[in-house]
Write a structure and sequence with these properties.
Shape: elongated
Number of domains: 3
Radius of gyration: 27 Å
Helix content: 55-70%
Structural class: mainly alpha
Strand content: under 5%
Largest sheet: 2 strands, antiparallel
Number of strands: 2
Distance between the termini: 83 Å
Order of helices and strands: HEEHHHHHHHHHHHHHHHH
Length: 329
């Protein structure tokens, strides 16, 4: 009796094809290729069970007995693992990140993009296509498929993410947002993601950290993975942007400077310090170490290398004295 076959999930297929460079892992010929289930169970779509083969090599895996020996499981595994290592070592460009617009990356794999478009169009995954077109910077196509995705009645969280891509989060009905938050209760990661999509960064961070702290049964891997996602997301940048606005509203120069430094907004930082250079020296609320740091920034903003070096020396002297005084105290 033939084994039931199910389609390899689109995301899994795209990842497997990308990691193998759309090339047969046995004969090393590029396309056309197929995805082979190593254990011969066509419903086991674990990436560790999948290998990319050309039609001829795939046929070799089906041959049993006789004088001509086919490709068995052990051989395919060896060929697959060796080829993946070769591709990984030779690939000089980073993998495609479909959440990050192309303006934020140096390059993207055009062959992979084409494959992902084909895969998602074939199954009508308009949400996936929207994020893909956003990633490669094609706003026109992104907006077309966003509308198709919206017509498919997506969940509230998906609707929020789609409109956020377009900068149109205000178009999501408040009742949809609240309903999705209610549905997500109990899954702190989902709630945190939704709050993040809404720009409620402090709540998103608090939810994520509280959720982790409340789960004593989670593995170290789970904790590390969650924190890594937190660090890789725009939560941190969003919090720094809010901190910058709060400091500006309070007319607090120092914390505006610190927020700009952490954001890496150098031109804005230089402009801010230069516009307040005279005030800095007269500000009695600033510590000597803070004034020294601001002098360094001002000198660098003016492109005065000598002044910057002298300011750095002054900063070091102040910090050294403070360290000694702290020990003696």
């Amino acid at each position: 009796m033939a084994k039931a076959r199910t389609a390899v999930p689109a995301a899994t297929a795209a990842r497997v094809l990308f990691e193998s460079d759309r090339t047969c892992c046995v004969c090393r010929k590029a396309g056309p290729v197929q995805i082979h289930h190593i254990d011969e169970y066509p419903t086991n779509h674990d990436p560790q069970n999948l290998a990319v083969l050309c039609f001829d090599c795939h046929e070799e895996t089906q041959r049993k007995g006789g004088f001509a020996r086919g490709l068995d499981r052990a051989q395919v595994l060896l060929y697959r693992d060796n080829w993946l290592q070769t591709v990984a070592a030779s690939r000089s460009t980073s993998e495609l990140d479909i959440e990050t617009p192309v303006s934020g990356r140096n390059t993207f794999d055009a062959q992979l993009v084409t494959s992902l478009v084909e895969i998602n169009r074939a199954v009508g995954n308009w949400v996936g296509l929207a994020f893909l077109y956003h990633a490669i910077g094609n706003v026109e196509l992104r907006d077309e498929v966003v509308e198709q995705a919206v017509e498919s009645d997506p969940s509230g969280s998906t609707l929020v993410r789609l409109r956020r891509l377009q900068g149109r989060i205000d178009e999501v009905p408040e009742k949809e947002i609240e309903a999705e938050l209610d549905r997500a209760q109990g899954d702190y990661r989902m709630v945190s993601r939704l709050l993040q999509d809404l720009g409620r960064y402090r709540e998103a961070t608090d939810t994520l950290l509280r959720g982790l702290a409340a789960r004593s049964d989670v593995s170290d891997f789970h904790v590390a993975f969650t924190l890594k996602r937190l660090l890789d997301s725009d939560l941190i940048e969003g919090l720094f942007v809010r901190a910058l606005q709060e400091a500006a509203d309070a007319d607090d120069l120092w914390w505006q400077v610190r927020a700009l430094q952490e954001l890496g907004w150098t031109s804005e930082l230089h402009a801010l310090v230069l516009s307040h250079e005279k005030e800095i020296e007269a500000d009695d609320d600033l510590w000597p170490s803070q004034k020294a740091t601001l002098r360094v920034i001002a000198a660098r903003a003016r492109g005065d290398g000598d002044a910057a070096r002298e300011a750095i020396k002054d900063e070091e002297r102040i910090m050294a004295r403070a360290q000694v005084e702290h020990k003696e105290g």
